[in-house]
Amino acid sequence: MDERRTVKVSKYLSKHLRHQPERIGLTLDEGGWVEIDTLIGAAATHGFRFTRDELDHVVATNDKRRFAVEGTRIRASQGHSVEVDLGLPPATPPAYLYHGTVARHLDAIRAEGLRPMDRHAVHLSPDRETATRVGARRGRPIVLTVDAAAMQRDGHVFHVSANGVWLTQAVPPPYLRLPEPR
Q1: Closest Cα to residue 73, out of 22, 24, 23, 39?
Q2: Rounded distance, CA 153 to CA 85, Å?
Q3: All domains of the chain, ordered by start, with CATH?
Q4: What is the pTM of this model?
Q5: Terminal-residue alpha carbon distance, the chain
Q6: Rounded CA gap, 73 and 82, in Å?
Q7: DSSP 114
Q8: DSSP secondary-structure letter at 3?
Q9: In angstroms, rounded to a whole number, what is the distance separating the alpha carbons of residues 104 and 107?
């Protein structure tokens, strides 16, 4: 499977397992799972065909491990804008976590902190390198440091998804280290 096809299938899966399952007639269960055969059939009915081998390839080679397969079911690991309960238990984060962004968002972040926007949780990275890659998707990346240990001491709850992304409801400004305004 060539890289272009891998990306195309991955984006299709992300769109329909995280944001718009109803667009192709899918109903995710409360945990975000759907039967793989149902997904493949719904995609084909709506003009996008892929095989189980292609799906398995995308799941196995995705560097961010965006998808989880359990038996005959698949789900997105995190990042949903549709209501799901991933069933992730609270977890103790490392002392610091990181968030990649771009300069145009800094004023809002200074004022409001990090908010989930159209997702269920704020996504944080365990290392600067990952946060840099995340921020670079939207331009020149800026990496923010989150004092996760202080947040947890103050009662904020963290979860970690199967692919290592840390999730929390919000990150208030006092817990963020941001670059100084120019």
Answers
A1: 39
A2: 25
A3: 3-76 (1.10.10.970), 96-177 (3.20.170.30)
A4: 0.78
A5: 47
A6: 18
A7: B
A8: H
A9: 7
